[in-house]
Specification:
Layout (H helix, E strand, L loop, with lengths): L7 H21 L3 H26 L7 H17 L9 H6 L1 H24 L5 H20 L1 H4 L5 E2 L5 E2 L2 E2 L3 H23 L2 H11 L1 H6 L4 H27 L1 E2 L6 H14 L6 H15 L7 H15 L4 H19 L1
Antiparallel strand pairs: 1-4, 2-3
Helix pairs in contact: 1-8, 2-8, 2-11, 2-12, 2-13, 3-5, 3-6, 3-11, 5-11, 12-13, 12-14
């Protein structure tokens, strides 16, 4: 197991603390509503980790990842409701394998679509890339609303089945809590290993300077497209989990506003820091709930938070706080 730090055991130490904290948290927080918030937070962590790989490591900005989240959710929902697959296959397969097989197929389809989209799109840079991904998100949202015969239109799809694993039914918030956060931690480990591999070093080189990376023989376009597809697959996976957890999906679940929230999670947590999505997702989800009472000011409040973070903590809120604490500790130890 490899972690991105000069001291890898230090990161492993924090990972173990995080795992223990997540494991014991439900013994303290027992209300279903609070577990629901934590589950949504875990799903956002999965999407934000993939988006951080794209933005923080490859240096490619996307305002369209909510669309990939929606593709995973709707593909899972459509396959399990519209085509009545559950009634057409042997019971043992529907109990043991079908939901996860559909999720895997949705990931592959989303990844293939993102790969095809990324080939022309990732040749753009800066604001042009942002506008292209934003436009893609808007198109997907319009399609989901207009194709009501398949997607349910603005009302979405309802009655999605809960996930099962070997006959074990995930039908409570607590069961989904352990499922979602176990998968989130697994994806975090896989992402750490990716960043410490040859691929991760190539992505860091591309982020630093595409010209320098090209002189080193790195196929810039291929790496950018692949990490774009991988991050889309993470988003699709989270979308499928969300669909089977909430059992209702609507176009609102994957609109442009959600894409903006995802980018805020990555930026606030810290670009190029895989621990950042945990902090960013927690902050954004809690703020969303807190600001829900003032819905008209929700977007304005998030915009203000993003501006303040970029001004005072350009490396992200979590890295900025860590630096401040280290400076205070160093100053106090020096004075003594």
């Amino acid at each position: 197991m490899h972690f991105s730090s000069a001291n890898k055991n230090f990161d492993l130490y924090y990972f173990l603390i995080l795992s223990i904290f997540i494991g014991f948290l439900p013994f303290v927080i027992k209300a279903n509503y609070h577990l629901l918030i934590l589950n949504i937070m875990g799903l956002n962590v999965i999407v934000a980790i993939g988006l951080n790989l794209l933005i923080g490591y490859a240096g490619q900005i996307s305002l369209g990842h909510a669309a990939f989240f929606g593709m995973g959710a709707y593909l899972s929902g459509i396959f399990t409701t519209n085509f009545d697959i559950l009634a057409r296959i042997p019971p043992w397969f529907s109990i043991w394998l079908l939901p996860w097989a559909i999720i895997f197929i949705a990931m592959l389809l989303t990844g293939a679509f993102a790969y095809s989209l990324g080939i022309p799109t990732l040749k753009l840079k800066g604001n042009y890339l942002v506008m292209a991904t934003l436009g893609f998100n808007i198109i997907i949202e319009i399609v989901l609303i207009d194709q009501d015969a398949i997607t349910g239109g603005a009302n979405g799809l309802a009655g999605l089945p809960y996930l099962t694993l070997g006959g074990f039914l995930f039908d409570t918030d607590l069961k989904y809590y352990y499922l979602i956060w176990s998968l989130a931690l697994l994806i975090l480990i896989l992402s750490f290993n990716l960043i410490n591999s040859r691929v991760g070093r190539a992505l860091k080189a591309i982020h630093g300077s595409e010209v320098a990376a090209n002189t080193l023989g790195i196929n810039i376009q291929r790496y950018k497209v692949k990490v774009f597809a991988l991050s889309a697959m993470f988003a699709s996976f989270a979308g499928s989990l969300y669909a089977h957890y909430i059992t209702v999906i609507t176009p609102k679940s994957c609109d442009v506003g959600y894409s903006i929230h995802l980018v805020i999670m990555v930026i606030v947590g810290g670009l190029g820091n895989l621990w950042g999505p945990l902090f960013g997702a927690a902050l954004v989800v809690f703020l969303s709930e807190f600001l829900h009472i003032a819905e008209n000011f929700n977007t304005v409040s998030f915009g203000l938070i993003l501006v303040l973070v970029m001004i005072f903590f350009p490396d992200g809120l979590m890295p900025g706080i860590v630096k401040m604490v280290r400076k205070r500790l160093a100053k106090s130890s020096y004075s003594t």
